[in-house]
Amino acid sequence: MPRGQSVELNRDEYSRPDLAERAEAYVKLAGLGVLSRAEIRVMERLTDAGLPGDDAETDDGEDLVAAEALTGGGRS
Asked: By C-alpha distance, which of 11, 20, 70 is closest to 45?
């Protein structure tokens, strides 16, 4: 590969449900208080765990790191 480029192989991407199914599940889990918005954002790779400005005021950070570890979330 050319210098400065990288490749990410994430086998979970091939087996994960489509966005509509994930969104429906997130709505249910958030409604039950199982997942926070910040955890969902990390799981969807929309943000990094522990970054300032990520809904971290409602989480102690441990749950966000766990969500990132579980799904490989967070930006590369």
From this structure: 70
